[in-house]
Specification:
The chain has helices at residues 25-28, 30-36, 42-58, 72-86, 99-107, 126-139, 168-188, 195-209, 246-249, 253-260, 277-289, 334-350, 363-371, 396-410, 427-434, 454-465, 476-488, 504-514; strands spanning 117-121, 144-147, 159-161, 164-165, 214-218, 235-238, 269-272, 293-296, 302-309, 312-318, 323-329, 378-383, 387-391, 414-419, 440-443, 470-472, 496-501. It is an alpha/beta fold and 518 residues long.
Length: 518
């Protein structure tokens, strides 16, 4: 029999439409503004330039992603903080050590130990799974903090309280509160704290200050030496592992799993998504060493059934305590159904179900939670007539999942791809995953420094698709226009669509360029 879970044992307080187009001038000024931001991180400059030039054209982006502050003074202060953060080591430059972040936590009084945590690693699905866990815990009246990366549009997205991005004012206040301690650690270290390390410190401090009942924390990369790994999480979640960041994490699933298994703490519960056998073996060995309990998808929990529904899918999930029928998830694709199963098992494990309690969570509350889930940039529709879908797939496994999901959910008569990946990714593998579903592909680049050179991308695309199916547009806005034009060639009611993919950066810029039908 279902029942509402008790209050968290750790206790805590209860506490526009737009279809693009418009004047050319804002888009023409985009590169001019980027060039003018000479003293700032190039990637941040691009994101902010997009916001400044396109906000009046398309209106504020939809959903739960923050836009630039309306108050000019607050906007200036946020820009100053962003510039100071961007002056540190970027996320692409890493040193495998927890020494600096541990020192920061020490001088802050170990804020990350003032609340329980669920720690999430894996290659694909981390952010969507984190958002589902956050929704479930919030529905059961727990105050949540969520830390995710990278961001789609604003750095403030990375830190959420009660299911919403931290306000710009609070983000600035948190940074200023930490600044003296950050400078203290900087002065005593060989290298200054990195961008990601400072943000991690800010998240953990903000969660303690709130205070939250539980933190849902997504690793930045890897596990063992990821800055987030100074927490002692009682639940460790491992989403599907595949090859990505091979230059830093290893070249085989086993090597990558070894690094990611570093989040498994002594006596924790490990919630393990379906994995390659070699990756699962590594994590299971780590669980034995840490005397951790293990819940495995396909054995202890999983997806019993799924049906495509209008706006998403209808699921029956098997949790650690029993079945949960007729759960509507407003996200597309079998991979999202599996993410939902993992999220449910993680929430159950947090409440002690499967170990201390043999029961299910309240089914109505679970249904309400899943029905509220959003995941911006994950098969997100941002325009109609023709339909434009965004997906942040950036590696072959993610691309394969997106390709299957868009085919299942939308049934386009013809699909045009817009692809703008980062240079360090397995771009050939990504293109090959999309080749069966793209009638034509427009290759382009986002405006960040990590973007792949368009000529190199075009040459690779021609090898995969053939010259007649590839169009090259150096600017993303021109690429979007070209793809929409290609889709419209079939006529208004023919059912053609556009899928924009390749990078979170590409998705973020496209959201700003097109806005979203509401």
């Amino acid at each position: 029999m279902s029942e509402h879970p008790p209050q968290d044992p750790h206790d805590g307080p209860d506490d526009g439409t737009g279809e693009g187009g418009g004047p050319d001038e804002p888009l023409d000024r985009f590169e001019e503004i980027v060039d003018a931001e000479t003293e700032r991180d190039p990637d941040l400059a691009v994101i902010e330039a997009g916001s400044r030039t396109l906000r009046t054209q398309a209106g504020p982006p939809p959903g739960d992603l923050p836009t630039r502050p309306e108050d000019p003074e607050l906007d200036r202060e946020l820009r100053r903080v962003e510039a100071e953060l961007a002056g540190r080591w970027p996320e692409t430059r890493l040193e495998p050590s927890l020494k600096r972040i541990a020192a920061l936590m020490d001088v802050l009084g170990e804020p990350q130990r003032s609340y329980p945590a669920i720690h999430i690693t894996g290659t694909n699905g981390k952010t969507s799974t984190a958002r589902m866990i956050e929704a479930l815990l919030g529905a059961f009246e727990l105050r949540t903090g969520r830390y995710s990366s990278p961001h789609v549009q604003s750095v403030t997205e990375r830190i959420s309280l009660d299911g919403a991005p931290i306000p710009a004012e609070r983000f600035i206040e948190t940074y200023e509160d930490l600044r003296p301690y950050v400078e203290m650690v900087d002065a005593s270290s060989e290298h200054r704290l990195s961008f990601f390390e400072v943000l991690t410190g800010m998240a953990y401090a903000a969660f303690a200050d709130a205070p939250v009942d539980v933190a849902v924390v997504e690793v930045g990369m890897g596990g063992s030496w990821d800055a987030t790994n100074v927490i002692d999480a009682g639940v460790a979640v491992v989403t599907p592992i595949s090859l990505d960041h091979t230059d830093r994490l290893g070249s085989t699933p086993e090597e990558i799993a070894r690094e990611k298994s570093g989040i498994v703490k002594q006596g924790a519960t490990v919630v393990l998504a379906q994995q390659p056998v070699e990756a699962a073996s590594v994590i299971l060995r780590k669980a034995v060493e840490a005397d951790a309990a293990v819940a495995r998808e396909g054995l202890e929990f999983g997806v019993v059934s799924r049906e495509v529904a209008v706006g998403g899918q209808l699921l029956t999930l098997r949790g650690l305590g029993g079945e949960y029928p007729e759960v509507f998830l407003p996200l597309h694709g079998v991979h999202m159904a599996h993410n939902a199963a993992v999220a449910l098992a993680a929430a159950e494990a947090f409440f002690g179900i499967g170990s201390e309690h043999a029961r299910t969570l309240d089914i109505d509350t679970v249904r309400t939670a899943f029905a509220s889930v959003t995941s911006p940039g994950r098969l997100e529709v941002v325009r109609r007539s023709p339909t434009v879908v965004l997906d942040a797939a950036h590696n072959p496994a993610g691309a394969q999942a997106a390709a299957a999901a868009v085919t299942e959910a939308f049934g386009f008569s013809r699909l045009v791809g817009v692809v703008a990946p980062s240079a360090e990714k397995d771009v050939r593998g990504l293109l090959e995953a999309f080749e069966p579903i793209f009638a034509e592909v427009v290759v382009t680049r986002n405006a960040t420094t990590r973007a792949m050179d368009v000529d190199e991308l075009a040459a690779l695309a021609v090898e995969v698709f053939g010259e007649e199916r590839v169009q090259v547009e150096p600017r993303l806005d021109d690429a979007l226009e070209a793809a929409i034009t290609l889709a419209e060639e079939e006529g208004e009611y023919a059912g053609a669509g556009v899928l924009v993919t390749g990078s979170v950066f590409t998705v973020g810029e496209t959201r700003l360029l097109l806005g979203k039908d509401r």
